[in-house]
Amino acid sequence: MDPVTSTSPEHDAIERIIGVSPWAEQVRRSIELVAVHQSSVLILGPSGTGKELIARAIHSCSMRSKKAFIPVDCAVTTGTLFASHMFGHVKGSFTGATSSTLGCFRAADSGTIFLDEIGEMELELQAKLLRVLQQRVVVPVGSHSELPVDVRVLAATNRDLASEVQAGRFREDLFYRLNVVAIRTIPLRERIEDVPVLATRYLAELSARHGMPMCALSPESTEILQQYSWPGNVRELENVLERAVMFSSGDQIDPDSLSGLMVGGAPGEPPSLGSSAQMAMAATCGIVSATPLPGVYRVEPKLASGAATAPGQPAAAEASSDSWPTLADVERMHLEKTLAATMQNKSLAAKLLGIDRSVLRRKLERYGLEEAEGPSGLAE
User: Fold this and answer.
1) What is the percent of the chain with per-residue pLDDT over 70, rounded to a whole number?
2) Cβ atoms of residues 360 and 32 within 8 Å
3) Does domain 327-370 have CATH number 1.10.10.60?
4) What is the pTM of this model?
5) Bridge partner residues of 182 (DSSP)
6) Minimum mean pLDDT among 79-83, 115-119, 174-178, 272-276: which range?
7) Residues of 118-142 as b/e, b for ≥16 C-beta within 10 angstroms?
8) C-beta neighbour count of 298 within 10 angstroms
9) How many CB atoms within 10 Å of residue 374?
10) What pLDDT is recorded for position 325?
11) Domain limits, CATH 1.10.8.60, in the chain
12) d(CA 126, CA 343)
């Protein structure tokens, strides 16, 4: 099948779970089995492993596929805005409520609602969500009328919810309400045989959908990528490949084009690239620099005008009036570095920056750093 051609929405949704590993085959079978039922599904696994992709595939293969799929980021749905965002409100129910709204649950009526990062939800809000899931009704803010909703619930988290329940941070009754069927994703390093397949698919999509040159991995580059530990999982693979296409001079991606690889080492020690000669070659083509994550370093491309700096040591800055950055420049650069260090995980980026995710989203939009929702589907 052509990497960027689909035959039907259902077939395309399943085929986007890319890979030849036993895990990929098992997940595709699981999606086909659970999609035809109405049970809640809890998708567990690390960030960047495609949990939303699995949720969308379940919806696309279900009887509800013609209806809405509504994703909800539970990490930003907090406080007093929760009820209005999730259940809607009536006109005049609070200051600024100039019109009535449906809310996410009613917008997803007869379809599917996807509760992403459910492990980040506050306890008080968990109780409100539990009542809706039990009673299958919502009460809009400012109203006393219960409105029935017919919604299939899919949820995802990178947390161990069983441990969260024991620690008192997640309601046990809500956990069992969501955990009817569980699908687990695994880190990319545990299905390394899928890396060449994922890379081929994403490189084809970069060319077809984004107008970038069509490139292929050299055997040496493929070996490097398969020996890499991928702390950012499939999301990091996408970013590395996109940079590699930009740095490649031809139609083949060689090791010297692979930049931005995250390498681990004990805190306070130089980074360890492993025993692979190819991995060491990739490091010599860039600058190994520290990130905000303890013991994690990033291999960046060398600058034409400067020499490599030692890990953790900033390059000297020239304080000329022409080159001195403005406050906005500094903020933008810091946002870019934080997103790179967290592999585009906005929840983690907001935590590192000490701001609410909604504030981070506005800043990203202001500087044009907000990623567009792409159709690649390789990681969500």
Assistant:
1) 76
2) no
3) yes
4) 0.71
5) 42
6) 272-276
7) bbbbeeebbebbbebbeeeebbbbb
8) 21
9) 11
10) 65
11) 188-313
12) 28
Torsion sign (Cα): 205, 208, 209, 213: positive
pLDDT tens string 280-301: 554 555 555 555 555 555 665 5
User: Where do we find the tokens 């935590």?
Assistant: 351
Closest CA to 61 of 81, 34, 39, 85: 34
User: CA 122, 127, 131, 137 torsion: positive or negative?
Assistant: negative
Give CA 357 to chain center in angstroms.
14
Which residues are within 8 A (CB) of 362 and not within 5 positions of it... i.e. 6 or more apart?
none
Residue ranges, CATH 1.10.10.60, the chain = 327-370
Q: How far is CA 47 from CA 56, 116, 180, 235, 345, in A?
A: 16, 11, 22, 8, 8
Q: What is the CATH number of domain 9-184?
A: 3.40.50.300
What does the pLDDT look like over 91-144, one tens digit per residue? 877 777 778 888 899 999 999 999 999 999 988 889 989 999 999 999 888 888
Per-residue burial over 2-11, b if 16 or more Cβ lie within 10 Å, else e, is: eeeeeeeebe
Topology of domain 188-313 in CATH is: Helicase, Ruva Protein; domain 3 (1.10.8)
Q: Which two tokens stand for residue 197?
A: 């397949």
- Give the single-character DSSP code of 108: T
Question: What is the C-alpha separation between 261 and 225, in angstroms, rounded?
Answer: 9
**Three-point CA angle 34, 155, 235, nearest 5°:** 100
CA dist 215 and 206 (Å) reads 9
Is 272 in contact with 297 (CB distance < 8 Å)?
Answer: no
